[in-house]
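Anyone have tokens for DUF934 domain-containing protein? Sequence:
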Amino acid sequence: MSDVITTLGGTPALAADDWTRIEDASAGIPATGKVIVPLAWALEHADELKARGDFGVWLKPDDVAEAAAPLLGSAGIVAVQYLKFTDGRGHSIAWLLRKRLGYTGDIRAFGDVRRDQLFNLRRTGFTSFAMAEGQNVAAALAGFTAFSGAYQLSADGRAPAWLAAASA
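Reply: yep, here.
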């Protein structure tokens, strides 16, 4: 089991990852344990997954967030893949899951996730982070305090600096 960073308790902290991401679910999934399956497979097997319980769904950068809507009431986690850290589509997916679709569960960033992204990933709605291979997960915790303020509105509810200044 590897470590992930979670913000579900409010303060970023290391946690053991008890989810298994299944790359190719067509070969079957384990009968027990927490699994994260690809969106397309999850939609085809929604009844089976809902009866099972502990399941999550993962979205690729080109998946449409709204397609996951039928699963969101049952999914324990939604994982969003970053193929390259420079690709911002995952930020939009997380924001849509939170703000448009009302998902309140764990949204995890995984793939090419780096310390420099953590502050903004959290602001767009992510609550857990599986860092890219080779990243120091413990040192990455400092990424959440790299900035003291932000300039955009976001899913985290914090007022941007310009709005706070205008209302002062």
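The first helix runs from residue 39 to 44.
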